[in-house]
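can u do me a favor
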């Protein structure tokens, strides 16, 4: 059975590679059509994707280890060259003052820092992808969910919980900012009746200015609330276009859900951003639904154009074909 699966994966990989080579000049349009044309089976596509994630992560680790090894070897050569200045009483700071400008010292330091930053970024990316982690989550409760992920394995054992706690602090900070925005003096859902007494408590008396009529004050208030709400809507639409791209829309869960056919799936991609928390839930869903419908329509149009172009190219006679008899 395993051999059959691997054979199917290899065939699928081959078809996918050919299709990508044919369409690479056209940019990123119509990826859903490309995937479905090259590999019709969802289970095979998922198996290929999982295989790619595992192998690519391992390749990246090997590349980084090789680069670090080269930097370390060059650093050892430097130590040999500096041996006259080094004895058992030499400390690292003294060595660094004299040789720190050497490119080999900088290369090792930069490579180590770069690798560490990449490992941390990938680890946090793994955490963000989990829909089960909240600001109250504990590492001991959730770590079992990640043991098979290459990004979990790439992080040192003693650092995993520390980076997890840093991520939880970031989540709490985002929640606090959202809460502060919701408790602002005037927010998107504030009513004139509720806000008028608060505004009149302004110590500078700006809300009680005799030159400002009652009708003027209320109109300015409502215009301000409207502007705030529209700004939040624009921000949320910008968030949708930044996060739910055609590539993200093409990803399908085992249950057949995507970010454009399931609001719960879409929320998993959006809720870590502050712009997500500034609108009421019902408004967020309706705006997402309109965006999803529009993106679905554009993808279908792109798929149709790709298919028509493919059919047209396939029907064109080759230069080597003999002319038809009349």
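np, heres the sequence
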């Amino acid at each position: 059975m395993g051999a059959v699966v691997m054979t199917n994966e290899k065939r699928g990989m081959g078809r996918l590679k050919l299709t990508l080579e044919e369409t690479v000049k056209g940019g990123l349009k119509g990826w859903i059509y490309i995937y479905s044309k090259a590999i019709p089976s969802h289970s095979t596509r998922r198996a290929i994707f999982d295989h790619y994630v595992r192998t690519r992560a391992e390749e990246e680790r090997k590349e980084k280890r090789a680069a670090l090894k080269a930097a370390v070897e060059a650093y050892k050569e430097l130590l040999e060259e500096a041996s006259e200045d080094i004895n058992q009483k030499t400390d690292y700071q003294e060595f660094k003052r004299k040789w720190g400008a050497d490119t080999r010292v900088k290369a090792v330091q930069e490579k180590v820092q770069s690798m560490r930053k990449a490992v941390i970024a990938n680890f946090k990316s793994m955490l963000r992808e989990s829909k089960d982690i909240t600001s109250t989550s504990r590492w001991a409760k959730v770590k079992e969910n990640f043991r098979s992920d290459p990004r979990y394995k790439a992080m040192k054992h003693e650092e995993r919980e520390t980076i997890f706690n840093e991520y939880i602090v970031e989540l709490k900070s985002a929640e606090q900012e959202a809460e502060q925005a919701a408790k602002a003096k005037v927010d998107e859902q504030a009513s004139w009746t509720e806000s008028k007494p608060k505004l009149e408590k302004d110590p500078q008396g700006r809300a009680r200015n005799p030159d400002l009529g009652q009708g003027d004050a209320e109109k300015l208030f409502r215009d301000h609330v409207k502007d705030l709400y529209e700004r939040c809507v624009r921000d949320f639409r910008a968030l949708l276009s930044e996060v739910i791209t055609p590539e993200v829309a093409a990803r399908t869960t085992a249950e057949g859900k995507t970010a454009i056919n399931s609001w719960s799936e879409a929320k998993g991609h959006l809720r870590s951003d502050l712009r997500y928390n500034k609108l009421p839930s019902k408004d967020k869903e309706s705006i997402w639904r309109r965006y999803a419908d529009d993106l679905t329509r554009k993808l279908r149009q792109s798929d149709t154009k790709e298919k028509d172009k493919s059919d047209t190219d396939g029907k064109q006679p080759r230069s080597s074909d003999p002319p038809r008899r009349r």
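Residues 77 and 83 are 10 Å apart (CA to CA). hope that helps!!
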